Amino acid sequence: MRPQPPSEDDTVARMGEFGLIHRVTRGRAQPASTLLGPGDDAAVVAAPDGRVVATTDMLVEGVHFRLDWSSPEQVGRKAAAVNMADVAAMGAMPTALLVGFGCPPETSTTLVDDLVAGLWQEANQCGAGVVGGDMVTADKLVISITALGDLGGREPVTRFGAQVGDVIAVCGRLGWAAAGLAVLGRGFRSPVSVVNAQRVPEPPYAAGPQAARAGATAMLDVSDGLLADLGHIADSSEVAVDIRTELLEVHQRLIDVASALGADPRHWVLTGGEDHALVAAFPDPREVPDGWRTIGTVRAGQGVTVDGLPYEGPSGWEHWRQ
Ligand SMILES: Nc1ncnc2c1ncn2[C@@H]1O[C@H](COP(=O)(O)OP(=O)(O)O)[C@@H](O)[C@H]1O
Ligand SMILES: Cc1ncc(C[n+]2csc(CCOP(=O)(O)OP(=O)(O)O)c2C)c(N)n1
Ligand SMILES: [Mg+2]
Ligand SMILES: [Mg+2]
Ligand SMILES: [Mg+2]
């Protein structure tokens, strides 16, 4: 039997995802080969003949996807995409994936074939391949991917470099996957544009290195929610971030879906995760690259505000806190 915690204070639910990460990462001395350790979208590790970007994210059936919502191929694409987005968020390009795969014994081999086809399809978009992995029996489908990446000789763009006076800009979609989740959660299967955004994110991979070349001071991918993830840049960089809603585009499709569901589309844009847009800080508004939209500013202080005010309610997804 699993040992029982002495009190409720000691459960992971009480601690939350980020409290737990802090607990397991604090106070650990890293070897000299760790150029950048835990705390960012990816680590950077030195090898005698170079550096490698390394990151891992796991998808669990029922938590990250459902097989009655997504095809196995779409699950494979999503598993690769969420990991390669973290590589891009360092300013690097993905080079290779290692795929840990767990499934129940009755899983069809066709499902595995289709999932792997999706993985390869997404990996090939970045010129990456699957170079290894692991297979285990499990109660549910689990895909845990480690993605490696190449900085192309540039310095990694971390979460801790944002400076007071920088502008915040975004490349990629915001709120679409959250809209798709709301649609699927109510038992609908359309509009297919938002439902597919939930099934398969489309991270703007090349925008990562593009932002690095343009002098981005900090960057991450939006996996949990714009405000939640900007909170990591604010905390790591010891600055405040203010988002201006007049600069945030809320696509007409999201407005339409929200009005059909009685939801707030702005909430999806501000706190919806899983689109894996890239958000970065740039020192000079004139240096914000093509394809990026300015949405806010970096100020002295701490935390994330919207039009100068704290946001009421959860700012994004946190495991065990949902
Ligand atoms: N079990 C763990 N051990 C060490 N580091 C971890 C662990 N889980 C998460 N981290 C690190 O904590 C940071 C935040 O994780 P996470 O929020 O999942 O990042 P992301 O949203 O970019 O995938 C990352 O640097 C990640 O590598
Ligand atoms: C069945 C189902 N329920 C809920 C969600 C919503 N959801 C699951 S995980 C998540 C946030 C991102 O996942 P996480 O594991 O935190 O990725 P990371 O931040 O580590 O990249 C969201 C919005 C979903 N995608 N599918
Ligand atoms: Mg990330
Ligand atoms: Mg993660
Ligand atoms: Mg997360």
From TrEMBL:
Mg(2+) 5 binds at residue 224. Mg(2+) 3 binds at residues 41, 86, 221. Pathway: Cofactor biosynthesis; thiamine diphosphate biosynthesis; thiamine diphosphate from thiamine phosphate: step 1/1. Reaction mechanism of ThiL seems to utilize a direct, inline transfer of the gamma-phosphate of ATP to TMP rather than a phosphorylated enzyme intermediate. The gene is thiL. Keywords: ATP-binding, Kinase, Magnesium, Metal-binding, Nucleotide-binding, Thiamine biosynthesis, Transferase. This is Thiamine-monophosphate kinase. Residues 39-149 form the PurM-like N-terminal domain. ATP binds at residues 133-134, 159, 223. InterPro entries: PurM-like_C_sf, PurM-like_N, PurM-like_N_sf, ThiL-like. Its EC number is 2.7.4.16. Gene3D superfamilies: PurM-like C-terminal domain, PurM-like, N-terminal domain. Catalyzes the ATP-dependent phosphorylation of thiamine-monophosphate (TMP) to form thiamine-pyrophosphate (TPP), the active form of vitamin B1. GO terms for biological process: thiamine biosynthetic process; thiamine diphosphate biosynthetic process. Substrate binds at residues 64, 274, 317.
